[in-house]
């Protein structure tokens, strides 16, 4: 639910809010809203709107203070789910991300089945719905993710891209703002086919290089394969358990499974020789998390065990709902090609 994520979390945690118009923001008169749920949006309430204006439009609007720490925690849960399917993830915000699942072999490599599996796991893990756009072109995937919101998906397969772009309202193309749209409309350009009919040369003459770029987008030439060069600083795996672990022994019994998964991911990326630190994470049944780490240049079960003992001791007699292990990494560059879009 792009730009409804915070409100969705609040409705999840407080069921009394589910059938009411709510917005997230400061309660003072000059405050500005971060987001609003779909009920509030029916009244015209939008993000970045002043509290005063929002309450004029919807007198029954409930303005709820934001809880950024909670939103970040939920976002982290969702990104952990993404990581089960691909490491090629480009987060745009807490509730949006591009995923490249080209090389994912799960669900027979079907992007649609993968997307639905991810959506189902997000709901099972967080109680939140998610929408997905699936396409071979990056900006088309982003547009598609808005088509069947909330809690839906839209597939634009390669053979449908051409017709989709021809019929596409130009205002939906990323980068086409209000002023630009007015200029395009004044020239009789409203959908992709209008741009194609005008032609590349005329688009260049009328609108400069940006016009030429828009023509290429409408013609399906801008795939959006990007080289996102970023430094990977760590890699970890974690698991949330259906039933709490109530003893240290139960926790340590999970270490072999976690190690196997971590080893596989490190080996697949050729990062086994980049290890610079070992770390563990323990989340107790009151959702309080603690971590422990140790500088080390190789994987070592004895060190992981010692770190788990240290972290577990901080919980007293509390049950454990999540365990994780990870490594800090030396410098390595990753190349990303993003062709799909997820929104929660």
From TrEMBL:
Native organism taxonomy: Bacteria, Pseudomonadati, Pseudomonadota, Gammaproteobacteria, Alteromonadales
Subunit structure: Monomer.
Keywords: Cytoplasm, DNA damage, DNA repair, DNA replication, DNA-binding, DNA-directed DNA polymerase, Magnesium, Metal-binding, Mutator protein, Nucleotidyltransferase, Transferase
Catalysed conversion reaction: DNA(n) + a 2'-deoxyribonucleoside 5'-triphosphate = DNA(n+1) + diphosphate
Name assigned to this protein: DNA polymerase IV
Job of this protein: Poorly processive, error-prone DNA polymerase involved in untargeted mutagenesis. Copies undamaged DNA at stalled replication forks, which arise in vivo from mismatched or misaligned primer ends. These misaligned primers can be extended by PolIV. Exhibits no 3'-5' exonuclease (proofreading) activity. May be involved in translesional synthesis, in conjunction with the beta clamp from PolIII.
Family (UniProt): Belongs to the DNA polymerase type-Y family.
EC primary class: transferase
Domain named UmuC: residues: 3-177
Subcellular compartments: Cytoplasm
């Amino acid at each position: 639910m792009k730009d409804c994520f915070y409100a969705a979390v609040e409705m999840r945690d407080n069921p009394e809010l589910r059938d009411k118009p709510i917005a997230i923001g400061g309660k003072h008169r000059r405050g500005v809203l971060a987001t609003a749920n779909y009920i509030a949006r029916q009244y015209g309430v939008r993000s970045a709107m002043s509290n005063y204006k929002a309450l004029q439009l919807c007198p029954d609007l409930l303005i709820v203070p934001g809880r950024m720490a909670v939103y970040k925690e939920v976002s982290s849960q969702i990104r952990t789910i993404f990581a089960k399917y691909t490491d090629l993830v480009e987060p745009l915000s807490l509730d949006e991300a591009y995923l490249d699942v080209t090389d994912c072999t799960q669900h027979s490599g079907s992007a649609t089945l993968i997307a639905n599996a991810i959506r189902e796991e997000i709901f099972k893990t967080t109680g939140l719905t998610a929408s997905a756009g699936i396409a071979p072109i990056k900006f088309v995937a982003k547009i598609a993710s808005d088509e069947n919101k909330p809690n839906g998906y839209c597939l634009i397969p390669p053979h449908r891209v051409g017709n989709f772009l021809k019929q596409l309202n130009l205002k939906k193309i990323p980068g086409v703002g209000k002023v630009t749209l007015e200029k395009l409309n004044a020239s009789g350009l409203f959908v992709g086919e209008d741009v194609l009919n005008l032609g590349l040369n005329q688009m260049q003459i009328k609108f400069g290089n940006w016009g030429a770029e828009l023509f290429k987008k409408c013609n399906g030439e801008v795939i959006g394969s990007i080289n996102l060069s970023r430094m990977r600083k760590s890699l970890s795996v974690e698991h949330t358990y259906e039933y709490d672990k109530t003893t240290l022994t139960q926790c340590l019994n999970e270490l072999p499974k976690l190690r196997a998964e971590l080893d596989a991911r490190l080996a697949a990326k050729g990062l086994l020789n980049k290890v610079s630190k070992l770390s563990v994470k323990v989340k107790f049944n009151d959702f309080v998390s603690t971590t422990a780490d140790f500088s080390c240049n190789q994987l070592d079960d004895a060190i992981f065990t010692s770190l788990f003992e240290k972290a577990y001791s901080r919980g007293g007699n509390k049950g454990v709902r999540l365990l994780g292990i990870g490594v800090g990494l030396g410098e390595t560059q990753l190349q990303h090609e993003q062709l799909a879009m997820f929104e929660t």
